[in-house]
Structure formats: C-alpha cells, structure tokens
Specification:
The chain has 351 residues and is an alpha/beta fold. It folds into two domains: 59 residues, DNA polymerase, domain 1; 280 residues, TIM Barrel, CATH 3.20.20. Helix content is 34%, strand content 20%. It contains eleven helices and 14 strands. The strands form three sheets. Strands 3-4-5-6-9-10-11-12-13-14 form a ten-stranded mixed beta sheet, covered by helices on one side. A two-stranded parallel ribbon has the order 1-2. The chain is elongated and about 70 Å long. The C terminus is likely disordered. It binds iron/sulfur cluster (SF4).
Length: 351
C-alpha cells in the first residue's frame, strides 16, 4: 500500500524518499509544492525531473480534504465547509474574516466523545481522530479559497469538533507543522487550542515549550452545574482545571482564556457572574463570554442581550478582563457540529 506523504515534517519526507532513490533536497521541493503552493499531484511538481515524479507517484499518495458542502453567511464574513477525507469521514471547518485577519476554526476529531450538553458535535460520539495532515488540510483548503483575494490564514483556533487534547500527538504535530518555515510559517502566538479541561494533558502541553494560547472551557463556577453541562467535570473539577490553567500561564507566560457559555436560566445570573469574578480574581487570564447557540436537540436557549451585558459588567466591575464573542454566521449553522449532523441525516451527493 502506498504511504501518504501529506502531513509529514520535511525530515520525515527526506527519510522516506531517499530509499527510493531521490536526493534529500527533493523533500524541500515537495514540501513547498504541497504546503505552500497547494499542489497535490506529483506530476505537477515541475521542478522535479519526470522520472522522479513517476517514482513518487508509484510509492506515495498526497491525501488531503475534499469539499462536500459549503455555506456562506449573508454578510460574506463567515464560510462554513464540510470537508471529507478518503474514508468518507466528514468534518467542519469555519473561516471567519475578521478586521484583524482571517481566522480558521479547525476540527481535531470526527465528532466528539466528551458529551458537553450544549454542543452539537458530540451528539453522535467520536468516529475517529484526525491525523496532523488532516487537520493541516483544513487550513490549506482555506488558504486556497483566500488565494484569489491575495490573502492567507492569519490565525488558527483548534476549537471545531473534537477534544484536541484527546488527540494529543497529532494535534501537537499539526501545531509544530504550522510554525515551520517550509509550511505555513505561522507564529505560535497565532494559534489557540481550546480544551474542555483535560488536566494531565494541559500540564503536558505546558511542558512542550509552545507559546500558543490556551483556552479552557469553564462554563460554570460550581462542580454540580459544571458536571451537568460537561461530564468531564466528574474527572477534573473546577478547582483542578483552574489550577492547571495557572500552571500553564506560569510555565508559558501566556494569559489563559476561560470560555464561559451563557445559557438562559442555568449559569447566566448575577450571582454566577460574581462567583466567576471571585474564582478568577488575581489569575493571569481573560474570560470569553459566549451566548449559547441554540441546540434544538437539547432545549438550550440563549439569554437576552441585557443579561449578557449585565454579566459582562459584573466581571468588568470586578476587574476581570472580559470579551463577549461576536456572533458570526448564525444564518449558516455555524455552531460546531450542526452541519455535520445534518449531513449524517441526509447524505449529500456532491462529493
Ligand atoms: S464542546 Fe468541545 S469537548 Fe465539548 S463535546 Fe463539543 S467538541 Fe467535544
């Protein structure tokens, strides 16, 4: 069986092309074609001699992602793609065109096992992990989309379907690849990893020496509410997760972001805002408030704007750095998992 070459470090490409008779420096040419020029056919790598291109095609494949479905918000700022791989697994990738650059939200698993009740990605569980190449393929697909406008991806958030720290090795390899000069040459500070709070993996990540931004989903200030929203809290409690966030910020010097999804009648009251401020006062962190995306299957509702504003004010009053996530793409099912769930109900034929 041919080996997939996409998603390998340049040194790994060197190691597999030299035994079939290619010079080591060819790995630089191949990685430039794949990662920087978006060329996924060996025959089109025209600075390699034809016999070498044929040798490559006989021994290797370049497995990337294929578009299954795309939706664009009416203001054209948000594009949501359903991308599929050769085994038929489909995942969602979102492009958000923001004033400070183009951000891409990538998936790290096909579905998710974590069971957060507000999240559509977990309704069918996790089918499998994505490889580093499959995560990278999402970013490169978007780069090709942006090319006609002479733009590229500026920021990556690993916040789509899946718990990235449950797919640790592939996700870390993806992050390192994005930083390589021969790949995206992206600063680590332009990458954010979002986790539901897998404490041992947060500590492991802190030790990697990657100054990426860590975003931790908190969503509640007490263990009883958090356990109802996020079953992972049975394993890693509120205080354990915040202690891990502190260790991360201490080791990396980076401010941790705590995500707090506001759900009407569950965690959006003034008392919750005060508890959150008390919990985080003095910690090197920001809070990102996210009015919940309605999940019809779970009966969860978004609080009114006035409630969101009051929650924010309470945090500001208590000197907690806070932002409210701007809603983008609500007219195109931009909440993670919704598009894939629709496709599972109704197979699309335009693959
Ligand atoms: S919020 Fe994240 S960790 Fe929780 S179920 Fe959804 S994808 Fe998984």
């Amino acid at each position: 069986m041919k080996k997939n070459i996409f998603g390998l470090y340049r040194e790994e490409i060197e190691a597999i092309i030299t035994p079939i008779g290619l010079e080591r420096y060819r790995a630089a040419q191949i990685s430039e074609w794949m990662y920087q020029r978006g060329v996924y056919c060996f025959q089109d790598m025209t600075n390699l001699p034809l016999p070498k291109r044929m040798l490559l095609a006989q021994n290797f494949t370049i497995d990337t992602a294929h578009l299954k479905l795309e939706q664009h918000s009416s203001d054209k700022k948000t594009s949501k793609l359903l991308l599929a791989f050769d085994d038929g697994a489909a995942i969602e990738t979102v492009l958000m065109r923001q004033p400070y650059g183009n951000s891409v939200c990538v998936s790290s698993q096909v579905g998710c096992n974590m069971g957060c009740i507000f999240c559509a990605s977990t309704l069918h569980g996790a089918a499998r992990n994505l490889s580093a190449g499959e995560i990278l393929a999402q970013v490169l697909y978007i780069n090709q989309m942006l090319k006609p406008d002479d733009m590229t991806v500026n920021n990556i958030v690993i916040m789509g379907s899946g718990e990235p720290l449950n797919n640790y090795d592939h996700v870390v390899k993806f992050i390192r690849l994005c930083h390589q000069e021969y790949c995206l040459n992206l600063s680590y500070r332009s990458i954010t990893l979002s986790t539901c709070g897998i404490v041992p993996a947060i500590d492991r990540l802190a030790a990697e020496g990657l100054p990426i931004t860590l975003s931790i989903s908190l969503h509640a200030t007490d263990d009883s509410t958090r356990t109802k929203l996020m079953p992972v809290n049975r394993q890693y409690s509120v205080s354990e997760v915040i202690a891990a966030g502190d260790r991360y910020s201490k080791t990396t010097g980076r401010r941790v972001t705590y995500e707090y999804t506001l759900i009407a009648g569950i965690n959006d009251g003034p008392v919750h805002a005060k508890q959150l401020a008390d919990l985080l006062r003095g910690h090197l962190c920001n809070v990102n408030l996210i009015p919940v995306n309605n999940v019809p299957e779970r009966g969860l509702h978004r609080p009114p704007l006035s409630t969101v504003a009051q929650f924010e004010q309470t945090l500001l009053h208590n000197k907690i750095n806070v932002t409210v996530r701007k809603e983008m793409g609500s007219d195109i099912q931009a909440a993670c998992g919704q598009l894939r769930n629709e496709s599972l109900k109704k197979p699309y034929i335009n693959r």
